[in-house]
């Protein structure tokens, strides 16, 4: 379990460097790629929540309690986004240096919580951890591109922006370490953490990512977005076989 968890934490950290790769891509083409990546993320997040996390919770406990915890997770993510400057939008018009630093603070907390939730999922089972890790990585990709742009617009050099993003991404290791260190104390709360993860996935996909897709009403692109959402869901469905194998 530790090996798999460490692998996903490392990949998540490396994703923070993806912004540098996009520098040479023309803005219009980049936006097209990001739209499809966001659509894929929507499918993966919804699929992860409804095909894996929620069924796992329903299997372990009462549906009424599960629903309350998931609603609590949705509300928690709403509060975090409102008050901890947590931004998933992959296009940002903010250009002030102070916002760049606030964005880093929000990302640090975001990555810390990702680490906690990822570790909690692996504590339930390795397949559930794998599903959670894939969903987190997919939604991190467009976010990191946006974060890199925010830092550049705020006056950061490319090198400084890369280093800042990489260092902030390492807070996921701290979050995972805290979850593992206090595993004995939080063992009874692991189902709640998994429910919070499910609520977070639903919130991010429904309120942050889907509105981004609606900004482009062109029929051809809308059809492509739908296809990529379905691909994301199908990928999560395919991972059900991994769970059943265990």
UniProtKB/TrEMBL annotation:
- Which keywords accompany this UniProt record? Membrane, Transmembrane, Transmembrane helix
Q: What Gene Ontology biological process does one annotation of this record name?
A: intracellular zinc ion homeostasis
Q: Topology versus the membrane, per the UniProt entry?
A: Multi-pass membrane protein
Say if the entry is tagged with keyword Membrane: yes
Q: Name one GO cellular component term.
A: membrane
Subcellular localization is given as: Membrane
**Transmembrane stretches, by residue range?**
36-54, 66-86, 116-141, 162-182, 188-210, 222-242
For this protein, the record's InterPro entries field holds:
ZIP
Among the GO molecular function terms of this UniProt record, one is: zinc ion transmembrane transporter activity
Question: What domain of life is recorded for the organism?
Answer: Archaea
Q: What is this protein called?
A: ZIP family metal transporter
One of the Pfam families matching this protein, by short name: Zip
């Amino acid at each position: 379990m530790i090996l798999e968890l460490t692998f996903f934490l490392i990949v998540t950290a490396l994703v923070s460097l993806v912004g540098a790769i996009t520098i040479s891509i023309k803005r219009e083409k980049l936006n097209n790629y990001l739209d499809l990546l966001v659509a894929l993320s929507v499918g993966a997040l919804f699929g992860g929540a409804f095909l894996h996390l929620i069924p796992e919770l329903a299997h372990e406990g009462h549906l009424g309690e599960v629903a309350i915890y998931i609603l609590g997770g949705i509300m928690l993510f709403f509060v975090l986004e409102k008050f901890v400057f947590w931004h998933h939008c992959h296009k940002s018009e903010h250009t002030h240096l102070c916002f760049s630093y606030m964005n880093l603070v929000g990302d640090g907390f975001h990555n810390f919580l990702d680490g906690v939730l990822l570790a909690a999922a692996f504590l339930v089972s390795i397949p559930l951890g794998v599903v959670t890790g894939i969903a987190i990585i997919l939604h991190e990709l467009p976010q990191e591109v946006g974060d890199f742009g925010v830092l550049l617009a705020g006056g950061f050099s490319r090198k400084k922006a890369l280093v800042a993003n990489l260092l902030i991404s390492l807070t996921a290791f701290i979050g995972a370490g805290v979850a593992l260190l206090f595993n004995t104390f939080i063992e009874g709360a692991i189902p709640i953490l998994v429910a919070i993860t499910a609520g977070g996935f639903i919130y991010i996909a429904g309120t942050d990512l889907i509105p981004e897709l609606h900004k482009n009403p062109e029929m051809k692109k809308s059809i492509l977005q739908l296809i990529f959402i379905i691909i994301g869901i199908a990928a999560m469905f395919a991972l059900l076989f991994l769970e059943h194998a265990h």
